[in-house]
Amino acid sequence: MATDVHGPVSPQVSPTSHAVRVEGLSRSFDGRAVIDDLRLDIRPGEFVALLGRSGCGKSTLLRILAGLDRDIRGTVLVPRRKAVAFQAPRLMPWKKVWRNVLLGLPGKPERAVAEKALEEVGLDHRTDAWPKTLSGGEAQRASLARALVREPDLLLLDEPFGALDALTRIKAQRLVGELWLRRGCAVLLVTHDVEEAVLLADRVLVMDDGVIAHEQTVDLDRPRDIADPRFAELRAGLLERLGVDTAAEAA
After folding, report:
1. Residue whose C-alpha is closest to residue 64's, from 21, 102, 18, 101
2. d(CA 137, CA 160)
3. Residue 211 C-beta-side C-alpha neighbours within 13 Å
């Protein structure tokens, strides 16, 4: 099942060939179009990364897919079961980690539900911790656990590793890749990091002027090796699409 977030929310049957279907999507702020007649399809189980310059509309698109922004024109079909993890973990400081994981779930879910998700992200030893005692990486894993307990068919990630140090970021990237392989849900990752996009995604999209201006299939075996010449070639091509002079970067 999917939800059409154009106009009144109503159930729609999503084609089995798509986890996300967007047609003619437009979103304006103060008369300026941030998203302009955008089209996007994501297949079930596909990992898609979205690149683009700051202000190009990446995070706006993600918020629309999450149902957090409905002042739009066009059609957006997404699974009912979806979850979001943002760059800021957004944990409630007055609730222990396991209670944060269950926030927003309907009914009265048992603690065991949170414990299972925390174990999956390697945080079962911090179940009873207070958020202020977590490291940046631990807080981000708690945020991922909170997304996973929703058993999403679509996982939306908005720069989830942006505030992490380099080593923790590598570990978090590896974790997300493993979770995706295990869960089999569709993933849309918004990132500024081209290397991260090529490392994780089946397909990389470049957003510019409110539309998907370019897409690149990443046909590399997993796990991927950043030293692979084909990896470097894909990375260089995407950087050029983003306006980065790779020759100057190498110098």
Report:
1. 21
2. 10
3. 8
What 3-state class would DSSP assign to 218?
coil
In a domain, residue 80? The reply is no
Q: Which of 30-34, 101-105, 195-199, 214-218 is predicted with the least confidence, judged by mean pLDDT?
A: 30-34
**pLDDT higher at 141 or 9:** 141
CA distance 144 to 155: 10
Instruction: State both tokens at 171.
Output: 């570990």
Structural domain total, the chain:
1
Alpha carbon distance 229, 226 (integer Å)? 8
Does residue 103 contact residue 54 with C-beta atoms inside 8 Å? no
- 58 inside domain: yes
Q: Domain range spanning residue 66?
A: 44-71+152-250
The CATH number of the domain holding residue 59 is 3.40.50.300
Quick check: 153 and 122 in contact, CB under 8 A? no
This prediction has a pTM of 0.89
Q: String of b and e for 167-200 (b: at least 16 CB within 10 Å)?
A: ebbeebbebbbebbeebebbbbbbbebbbbbbbb
Instruction: Convert the pLDDT of each residue in 231-245 to its tens digit.
Output: 999 999 999 999 887
